[in-house]
């Protein structure tokens, strides 16, 4: 049986208000449950919003390095870059410093010999420090470099070529007074002998020519260092930040070495004499064994 409300009767106001409040409460509860179910966690956010400043610097460094790599290969000969790369190798610089130090006493004065001996020691210290940093950081090299891609090189930071290049520059700058004396006593007399038949050098122009020679050699050393460090990025061997930190490390190593580890003149000369005599004795033994062959090293030591 259907019951209908009589005409003219109305709902109780309080009952209608309670119904509306209950309806609103149920609607709010449903909204909260919906929001709870659709909440986004921090892991669901895009990674770029959660990346730290270190990650952003690495991204900028990678993009900038790749841009230098692409642009540089268009303006520089690849063979020139490879020659610069070889000139900054430890396998070249360490033997070169050792060979210069072991030259006969008549070829170099003691101060220059001490310079090369300390440079050799600084190269060895740099080799140890850079190897430790590389093995600790283990930053992977650029993937657009075929060398790193093939060998799986993951020790890109810092650039060893950059540390050695700035070490040469810093050492040369610290020994600049010695090179001025070398220009006056060795370079200028050699230049006079070479140009004696073509150019006459007046005594008044000798100081200016000495300064010019030192400036030319300084410019060559600095240019070599800039070109060598730049070649690391252009060839895709290192990132820009690897090279920048390598330059800072090389400069700091040179300053600390010259303040705390520098080898004095007396030790340098004693070591040179001992090594020269040692190889001279070896040649003497071999000469006697082979029947009186001429002893080149022994005469080389006494020159």
Summarize it.
With about 300 residues, this protein is mostly helical. The chain has helices spanning about 15-35, 45-50, 55-75, 80-85, 90-100, 110-135, 145-150, 160-175, 175-195, 205-235, 240-260, 265-290, 295-300. It starts with 12 loop residues before the first helix and ends with a helix.
Could you describe the 3D structure shown?
With 303 residues, the chain is an all-alpha fold. Among the domains are: 169 residues, no CATH class; 39 residues. 74% of the residues lie in helices and 0% in strands. It contains 13 helices and no strands. Helix 6 runs antiparallel to helix 8, helix 8 packs antiparallel against helix 10 and helix 9 packs across helix 10. The longest helix has 29 residues. The protein is globular. About 6% of the residues have low confidence. It holds the Pfam family PAP2. It comes from Ceratodon purpureus (Fire moss).
The level of helicity is: over 70%
Question: How many strands?
Answer: 0
Distance between the termini: 136 Å
**Form type:** globular
Largest sheet: none
Attribute tags:
transmembrane; mainly alpha; PAP2/HPO; transmembrane helix; Phosphatidic acid phosphatase type 2/haloperoxidase domain-containing protein; 303 residues; 13 helices
